[in-house]
Amino acid sequence: MSVRLEVWAPLPKRVELAVGEERIPMQPRETGWWVAEREIEIGLEYGYVLDGEGPYPDPRSGWQQEGVLGLSRAVDHAAFSWTDDGFSASPLADAVIYELHVGTFTPGGTFESAIDRLGDLADLGVTHLELMPVAEFSGDRGWGYDGVDLYAPHHAYGGPEGLKRLVDAAHRHGLAVLMDVVYNHLGPEGNFLPLFGPYFTSKYTTPWGDAVNFDDAGSHEVRRFVIDNALMWMRDYHVDGLRIDAVHAIFDQSAVHILEELATSTRELAAEVGRPLVLIAESDLNDPRLVKPVSEGGYGLDAVWADDVHHALHVALTNEETGYYADFADADALARAITDPFVYAGHYSAFRDRLHGRPADDLPGDRFVAALQNHDQVGNRAMGDRLSHLVSAGRIRIGAALLLTMPYVPLLFAGAEWGASSPFQYFTAHGSPQLARAVRRGRREEFGDFIENVETVPDPQDPATFEASKLRWEEREREPHAGILAWYRELLALRRANPALRDADRDAVTVHHDPDAGWLRIVRGPISVVANLGAEPVELDVGGEIRLAWPEDTAITEGRVTLPPDGVLVTETPR
Question: Which of 259, 293, 335, 381 has the fewest Cβ atoms within 10 angstroms?
Fold first, then answer.
């Protein structure tokens, strides 16, 4: 099969298609587009020469087999034989999302090797995989948030064919797939977009330099570039939705915000392909407009990460109160977070020294994704330490019990379900020595105020940092990991079996707590969770039959239970 290539390049005066040593003049079209005079074979290497410089990879390259500095290859999406006809993702109200990094999920670190573990996740009770970004980024290892070829699945993971095989296999196991996409910035190495057109604008300042151009001159084609990319993942790779990174860093003053346009386009594609597609935003704004319908002045997205819930859980379990965690040192913060995803809803934030957020109003719980851990909250710690490195066995279980009985969509970070011993550290493999030095220096400077010896902060460029972050699946068979895994299995089974635990009505949740004694109780229909985060045992009235208990010998005597510090009890009242 062959394809005729076109490229949007309004900046150069002359564009040539490079195929091997051949240079084929391209013909200009309206609004900065150029079209090749002849077709090229699928899979053949090609690039674009701009005013005699290059060749550079295609901004819409579907396959970068040699990485960000190599040339492009076109992909025939119709050539893959899908076997997932009839698959439909579970609604978010019933979902359990599992966030994973392809490179550290298995020893092989590829799409193909991840397939071998899909059965484990389905058996655990997961419904959705969330892949950290896989668009082509610099080097053969990294988190993926510095991608530059947004249309090309990363070469080290297995490229387009590997990703399709993973999605197809996930659907066979009943698992939906969500793709983490980054539209607020691109990485520095291999980013040739500014040579082609006004993909960026200096109107706004971002931590990464000029902002992606969503509302300045030429932005109509940049918006099209992003929308087409999002639809490609859901149409051509059959993914079931997107997690959109840091939307608070997407700047757009257009009458129709790019997120609203994306939501509208996604709904149209869902109708076309006949299956549900979802959009989940990461945002630190505590702004319910992201998930309110367009008819109510919202952007129409399906859900948003509720970081306040994570922060409240983390502080209650670890007693850490540095940085933004200081805002959640209030003894009532966790109790509020259980029924209100935005603890800061127009309240004064000492960390920010300003008012922050607005009320979530009557939005249902399935509009919010809550996590006990995620890649940011683990990997952005100096040593990449997980919750299992920070708290007792009892508090690991308390955290899991609270997360999985809250009225939100729960997200598990890969390995949390067995208290993985491996950290999740920040790792890169930039080819530029200057960039590598800057990343190494920046990482250590970031923790200068928190760590006595910054030389102990793992070097992101050292391959050993990446290797240390790989999950060790074999440890699930031994303690303490086996016990934690069993705890998660029982909780997820309880969630599946009880509609009350999947009810998105936040008003149907009752929370009791004593901030002085340190105990807390959640009641959702027939299910009750009681946890003791205090320093002394507590004696409490409880009802129902024990479904889970820590310590394991905890017993109910005449309707009362004595919970030691770090104890937790899950009961069910017969219907």
Answer: 293
